[in-house]
Amino acid sequence: MTSQHPFVFIVDDEPAVRDSLALLLKQEGINVQTFENAETFLSAYQPDYKGCIILDIRMPGIDGMQLQEKLSYCKCMMPIIFLTGHGDIPMSVRAMKAGAIDFLTKPITRAKLLASIQSAFLESEKLIAANKHNQDALSRLASLTKREHEVMQLAIQGCHNKEIASRLGISFRTVEIHRSNIMHKTGAINLLDLARIAYESGLNTST
């Protein structure tokens, strides 16, 4: 399933809950897909899914917290809204620390649920945009040679060309050529822009 529009994925082992939530959201014009347990969701899950997940805590097999952990490991970009009738404060704290965007208890009002979903959709868009920036940055840096990577790291740490040449055992002119190639390959307009690209790629620039 691929779509330009976000979906709400409901994972709950209670048919009545799944059906009532799906009906409510469809009435609001929101795309919905339901799953009776974590296993069926995981078997259907695709990295390009957009939207958010409404997730129960207590389910047979893989429970909600375990599913959250698995999705985090997969770098899932869909925020999780926990909706449960069995929540407590320690559980909610654990879920939020693990990245859940909200922790709601049943029964839930229509307004509160819709507000939480809208917040989750906005967060999902931010995550997707950030990931796109990261992938773009990685593709730019992938064209650099090993030596160019070394020069770039020293440059964005604040080293001048003379210092870079000394530390790498190359000539000043060679450093200038490498820096010119780096700027051309990455499309960076200045050193600050280059540092941004490196940061967005996940490159550790502190060493």
Helicity range of the residues? 55-70%
Rg (C-alpha, Å): 23 Å
Count of individual beta strands: 5
Alpha-beta content class: alpha/beta
Description:
By secondary structure, the protein is an alpha/beta fold. The chain has two domains: 7-132, 3-Layer(aba) Sandwich (Rossmann fold); 143-200, Arc Repressor Mutant, subunit A (Orthogonal Bundle), CATH 1.10.10. It is 56% helix and 12% strand. The protein has helices at 15-27, 38-44, 64-73, 89-97, 110-141, 146-156, 161-168, 172-186, 191-200; strands at 7-11, 31-35, 51-55, 80-84, 102-105. Strands 2-1-3-4-5 form a five-stranded parallel sheet, with helices on both faces. Helix 5 (110-141) packs across helix 9 (191-200).
Short précis:
The protein is α/β, with parallel strands linked by helices and 207 residues long. The protein has helices at 15-27, 38-44, 64-73, 89-97, 110-141, 146-156, 161-168, 172-186, 191-200, and strands at 7-11, 31-35, 51-55, 80-84, 102-105. Strands 2-1-3-4-5 form a 5-stranded parallel sheet, sandwiched between helices.
Short descriptors:
Arc Repressor Mutant, subunit A; single chain; Rossmann fold; 12% strand; five-stranded parallel beta sheet; 9 helices; alpha/beta; 207 residues
